UniProtKB/TrEMBL annotation:
The keyword Ion transport applies. The keyword Transmembrane helix applies. Keywords: Disulfide bond, Glycoprotein, Ion transport, Membrane, Metal-binding, Oxidoreductase, Repeat, Signal, Transmembrane, Transmembrane helix, Transport. It comes from Coturnix japonica. Belongs to the multicopper oxidase family. The chain crosses the membrane at residues 379-397. This is ferroxidase. SUPFAM superfamilies: Cupredoxins (SSF49503). Its EC number is 1.16.3.1. Its main location: membrane.
Length: 448
C-alpha cells in the first residue's frame, strides 16, 4: 500500500470563519458502483503497465479464471437533502477520498442527524465510532430477538435517520490536535459490508473555518489503509460472472485466486493511483489515518521526506490497527514528490536495492570479563578491606565449586563474505550483537 503526496510552493488563501451551529445534518446513501482499483492503468512507482509483467499484474490481469482490477462495490454517497435527488458536489480537495464516504464533522455537544437511504440491493446500515447514541440509533445487530430492526437492517429502498451526540470525552483535549479521527461503517454484517466498500471518516473537533477546513489547518487528507478482501465481499459471485472469461472454471478455494482478490489499497487505489495528495510548503496539514480489516491489517505507515507531529512527538511514521484511527499534523519543509507507504514489510518497500547478507549462527565460549587486570587490583583491595569480598560483583565474576565464573557457552550471529561461509567478514566490533541493518537469511521481494 503506497501513495504519493506532493509539496509545492504556492500562495495561501485566507478564509473567514463561519458561524457555528449545534445541529449537523447529513444525507448519505449506499450506492453500488463499478470500482477500478487502478484507473490510471499503470504502476506509478515503476512506470510499468498493471496488466503485463509487473508486480501489479496479479491484481489487474483479467483471464479465464481471474477478475482483474475492476469490481462491483458499494459506497456511501452524500446528497443535499432528504429527497436524495441531487448529489452533493465533492470539493476538488476531497478527490482523494476515493472509496471513502463523505466526511462527517461535529463539535463536542453537537447533535448529528444522519439520514441514510439504501439505494443498493441488500440491507445495510451506518455505525459510528466517537459519538454516543441510544439503542434506537445503533447500526449494529444483536442476537437478542431484534436482529432485523431497521436501525441495523435498512432494506433496499428504505431510509432511516440516526441520531448521534458528540460527548465531551469524544472530542479533543488540550493536548490533542484540533480534531480526533474516527470512522463510520455498515455493521449489518461488518466484515462483508466493509470489504464491499461501506466505510467513511468521522471527525470530532473544536472549531472550523468552513464546512471543510478545520481551524488553523490549510489542508486535510483522509487515508484508509486496508486490504479489501474481495473474496469476502457481497459481490464476489457477481464479479466472477461479470469479469472472468469462463466463470465455470473459477475455483474460489484456489489460493492464487484468493490472493488476486486481496487488494492492498489506500482509499481503494493500488500502486500510486490515489489522486489529490497535493499541498504547499509550510502548509498546516492534517492527516486523518484510518485502519480497517482483519488481523493482517496491522500497518506501519511511513511518510518520506517530511516529519509528522503525533501526540506531541515528531516522527516519520505511526502504527495503525483495524478500527483504530489517528490524527497526525505536518508542516512540510521539503518540496517534491514523496512516498507515503507501509513499512510493516520492510523488504516490500525496497525498490531496486536488494541487499544480501550471509549470516551464520556459531557456538562460542564467551567471556563476560575478558580483561582480567581488575583481579590484580581486587587482591590488594581485599587484603586491606576484606568486607568487600561480599560485594555483588564477586557473585558474577568468581569461579568455584558452585560458581561458573565469567565464561559461558553461547551462540552468536557472525557475518561471512559469501554463501560458502568459509571467510568471515570482520568489522572489528566484537561483542555478541549481530551486524547492524536489515539482516535476512534469504533476500527477496514481496509483491503488493
Amino acid at each position: 500500500m503506497e501513495a504519493l503526496y506532493d509539496v509545492q510552493i504556492c500562495q495561501k488563501n485566507l478564509s473567514q470563519p463561519s458561524p457555528l451551529s449545534h445541529k449537523r445534518r447529513y444525507y448519505i446513501a449506499a450506492e453500488e458502483v463499478l470500482w477500478n482499483y487502478g484507473p490510471d492503468g499503470y504502476d506509478k512507482f515503476t512506470g510499468l503497465i498493471c496488466y503485463f509483467h509487473s508486480e501489479s499484474a496479479i491484481y489487474f490481469t483479467q483471464g479465464t479464471d481471474r477478475i482483474g482490477g475492476l469490481y462491483w462495490k458499494v459506497r456511501y454517497v452524500e446528497y443535499t437533502d432528504a429527497t436524495f435527488s441531487k448529489r452533493k458536489i465533492q470539493p476538488e480537495n476531497m478527490k482523494h477520498l476515493g472509496i471513502l464516504g463523505p466526511v462527517i464533522k461535529a463539535e463536542v455537544g453537537d447533535t448529528v442527524l444522519v439520514t441514510f437511504a439504501n439505494k443498493a440491493r441488500r440491507s445495510y446500515s451506518i455505525m459510528a465510532h466517537g459519538v454516543s447514541f441510544s439503542k434506537l440509533s445503533e447500526g449494529a445487530p444483536y442476537l437478542d430477538g431484534k436482529f432485523l430492526l431497521q436501525r441495523a437492517h435498512v432494506k433496499p429502498g428504505e431510509t432511516f435517520t440516526y441520531k448521534w451526540r458528540v460527548p465531551e470525552n469524544g472530542g479533543p483535549s488540550e493536548s490533542d490536535p484540533p480534531c480526533l479521527t474516527y470512522l463510520y461503517y455498515s455493521a449489518t454484517d461488518a466484515v462483508k459490508d466493509t470489504n464491499s466498500g461501506l466505510v467513511g471518516p468521522l471527525l470530532t473537533l473544536v472549531g472550523w473555518l468552513s464546512s471543510w477546513l478545520q481551524k488553523g489547518i490549510d489542508r486535510e487528507f483522509y487515508l484508509l489503509f486496508s486490504i479489501f478482501d474481495e473474496n469476502d465481499s457481497w459481490y464476489l459471485n457477481e464479479n466472477i460472472e461479470a469479469f472472468t472469461g469462463d466463470p465455470s472454471k473459477v475455483d474460489e478455494n484456489d489460493e492464487d485466486f484468493k490472493e488476486s482478490n486481496k487488494m492492498h489499497a489506500v482509499n481503494g487505489y493500488l500502486y500510486g493511483n490515489l489522486p489529490g495528495l497535493a499541498m504547499c510548503k509550510d502548509d498546516n496539514v492534517s492527516w486523518h489515518l484510518i485502519g480497517l480489516g482483519s488481523h493482517y491489517d496491522m500497518h506501519g505507515v511511513q511518510f518520506q521526506g517530511n516529519n509528522i507531529d503525533l501526540r506531541g512527538t515528531r516522527r516519520d511514521g505511526l502504527a495503525l490497527f483495524p478500527h483504530l484511527s489517528a490524527t497526525a499534523l505536518m508542516q512540510p519543509e521539503r518540496v517534491g514528490m514523496f512516498l507515503c507507504y507501509l513499512g510493516v514489510l520492510v523488504l516490500e518497500e525496497i525498490r531496486h536495492a536488494v541487499r544480501l547478507y550471509y549470516i551464520a549462527a556459531e557456538e562460542v565460549e564467551w567471556d563476560y570479563a575478558s580483561n582480567k587486570t581488575f583481579r590484580q587490583v581486587n587482591v590488594i583491595v581485599l587484603l586491606i578491606f576484606p568486607f568487600l569480598f561480599c560485594s555483588y560483583g564477586h557473585i558474577f565474576l568468581s569461579q568455584g565449586d558452585d560458581l561458573i565464573g565469567t565464561k559461558y557457552k553461547k551462540v552468536v550471529y557472525r557475518e561471512y563474505t559469501n554463501g560458502n561461509f568459509t571467510q568471515r567478514k570482520e568489522d572489528g566490533r566484537g561483542g555478541t550483537l549481530g551486524n547492524p541493518g536489515q539482516v535476512a537469511f534469504m533476500a527477496h521481494r514481496l509483491s503488493r
